[in-house]
């Protein structure tokens, strides 16, 4: 028995047609929401600030101090506005093991209570951040003459978006009769 591989000769036309068969996939930007674009814009401002910090420190040997502060504040915005994406997509860390062993009605009731607690938490966080903004008022950033309250407005926007998205998620859970806690496979595509 021979172990030599047998290759079939193919023509140039067959090679050319293999490239035609693969259609370019359609790009669907409709799956992204407002907070996705805002977080992306803030992320790129942060990336540019970090790059400028790196460039001025290691290439010019004279770093700009303000780039580190801007990058830090941009990271705060990315985290809190990006967290609303996780609320919208039900991607926050959660423990769903308990729900596998609970009766359906108990699991449904517990899931609804968790939705209500989440809504209340984000509502309370909105109040706390608003009070904090009123307290710090016109405090300036350390390296540039710009008020810090704009950073906290980004945090406030993040909590407002999380509050709205948690209301939408709770309404969706109520309409469909289950949540990600009860049927995680329905949310990650593993459920058939």
Q: How many DSSP-defined strands? A: 0
Gross geometry: flat
- Structural class from helices and strands? mainly alpha
**H/E element string?**
HHHHHH
Number of spatially distinct domains? 1
Share of residues in helices: 55-70%
Determine the N-to-C terminus distance.
Answer: 46 Å
Family: Belongs to the TRAP transporter small permease family.
InterPro entries: DctQ, TRAP_DctQ
Protein name: TRAP transporter small permease protein
GO molecular function: transmembrane transporter activity
Structure in words:
65% of the residues lie in helices and 0% in strands. With 192 residues, the protein is mostly helical. The chain has one domain (32-138, 146-179). Helix 2 packs antiparallel against helix 3, helix 3 runs parallel beside helix 5 and helix 4 (104-136) packs antiparallel against helix 5. The longest helix has 33 residues, at 104-136. The radius of gyration is 25 Å and the shape is flat. The protein starts with 11 loop residues before the first helix and ends with a helix.
Summarize the structure.
By secondary structure, the chain is mainly alpha-helical. It has helices spanning 12-21, 34-59, 66-89, 104-136, 149-176, 185-188. Keywords: Cell inner membrane, Cell membrane, Membrane, Transmembrane, Transmembrane helix, Transport.
């Amino acid at each position: 028995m021979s172990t030599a591989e047998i290759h079939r000769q193919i023509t140039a036309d067959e090679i050319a047609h293999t490239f035609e068969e693969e259609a370019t996939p359609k790009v669907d930007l409709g799956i992204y929401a407002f907070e996705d674009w805002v977080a992306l814009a803030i992320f790129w401002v942060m990336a540019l600030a970090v790059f400028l910090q790196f460039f001025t420190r290691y290439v010019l040997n004279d770093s700009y101090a303000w780039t580190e502060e801007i990058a830090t504040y941009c990271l705060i915005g990315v985290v809190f506005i990006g967290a609303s994406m996780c609320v919208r997509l039900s991607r926050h860390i959660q423990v769903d093991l308990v729900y596998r062993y609970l009766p359906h009605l108990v699991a449904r009731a517990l899931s609804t209570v968790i939705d209500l607690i989440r809504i209340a938490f984000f509502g309370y966080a909105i109040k706390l951040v608003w009070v904090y903004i009123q307290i710090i008022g016109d405090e300036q950033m350390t390296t540039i003459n710009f008020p810090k309250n704009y950073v906290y407005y980004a945090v406030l926007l993040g909590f407002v978006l999380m509050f709205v998205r948690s209301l939408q998620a709770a309404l969706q859970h109520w309409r469909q009769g289950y949540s990600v806690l009860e049927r995680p496979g329905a949310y990650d595509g593993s459920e058939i």
